[in-house]
Write the C-alpha cells for this entry.
Amino acid sequence: MQYISVIGSGTMGNGIAHTFAQFGFEVSLVDIDDAALTKAMATIGSNLDRQLKKDTITEADKMHILNRITTFTDLADGVHRADLVVEAATENEEIKLALFKELDKSCPHHTIFASNTSSISITKIASVTQRPENVIGMHFMNPVPVMKLVEVIKGYSTSTTTTNSVIALSNKIDKVSIEVNDYPGFVANRILMPMINEAIYTLFEGVADVEAIDAVMKLGMAHPMGPLQLADFIGLDVCLAILRVLHDGFGNPKYAPCPLLVNMVMAGKLGRKAGQGFYTY
Ligand SMILES: NC(=O)c1ccc[n+]([C@@H]2O[C@H](COP(=O)([O-])OP(=O)(O)OC[C@H]3O[C@@H](n4cnc5c(N)ncnc54)[C@H](O)[C@@H]3O)[C@@H](O)[C@H]2O)c1
C-alpha cells in the first residue's frame, strides 16, 4: 500500500492524514468544503510544530510530511489512485452511504474501503458497494497522531485478506489494532457511552455536581479525564447519536439517553466545540 485517501478533513480526518504522511505514505485529503481543507492543513502544520519543539521530528521531516499531503474537493480526482480509503466524514448514515456508492465507482478494484465511523454498521456500509469483502472499520481515536488504538471492525462480509492488510498497515503507522465484530457501538463506544450516560444521570438526579463526578472518576479510577469533561470533548450531539444507535440496535432500555443530555443537545450546549457543555470553554 502506498496511496491513502482520507475523506473528510475535520477533527479526525486531519489527524489520520497527518499520521499516514508521517510514516511515508502519499495522502490525498478530500473534503466537500474548501475552507475545511485549509483549516486542516493549518492544524496539521501547528501539530507538526509541536512535534518539532519536542524534537520528535526535524524541520526537514515537517516539510516532507506536508509535501506528502495533497488536498482535493473533487472525490473522483482524490481517490483514483487509492490503495486504501479511510472515510472520516460527518457521522450521518445518509452521507456515508452516498459517499461509499461514489467511492465504489471512482476507486480501482483493489482499493480497500475503511470507515472511521463511531457507530454506523460496517455491514450496512459494505452493502451499498460491489466489494463488501473489501470494506472494514478502522476506528481511530482522537487525537489520532497521539492515541495508539485502532479498533478494527470486521463487517459480516469482510475478508480475512482485508482484515490482515489493515492490521499490517496499522502496525506500519505505529498503532495497535484490536479486532472486533460489527455490533452496535463495537467495543469502545458500547462500554464508554453507558458510562458517560450514567455520569449524566448522576448529575441529573442531583447526586453530585459536575466537578465532583469528574473528580471521583479521575482520582478514584485513575481516568485521565472525568466522564463529563470527556463527553464535552467528544461532543454531546455525538454522544447522543451513539446512544441512540445502541438503544435502537439492542432494543434494551439500559441504553436510553438521559433526558438532561437530550435537553442540552436541543439547547445547542454541545460541549467544547460550542463553547459550552458541562463546562464553559
Ligand atoms: N471526534 C471524535 O472524537 C471521533 C472519534 C472517533 C471517530 N469519529 C468519527 O470520525 C468521523 C468524523 O468525525 P469528526 O469528529 O472528524 O467530524 P467533523 O465534523 O470534525 O469533520 C467532518 C468533515 O467531513 C466533511 N464532509 C461531510 N460530508 C462530506 C462528503 N460527502 N465528502 C467529503 N467530506 C465530507 C465535512 O465538511 C467536515 O469537514 C465520524 O464518523 C465520527 O463518528 C470521531
Observations:
- The pocket of nicotinamide-adenine-dinucleotide is lined by residues 7-13, 30-33, 36, 88-91, 95, 99, 116-118, 139, 142, 234 (CB under 6 Å).
- The mean pLDDT is 97.
- Residues 34-53 form the longest helix (20 residues).
- The longest strand covers residues 135-140.
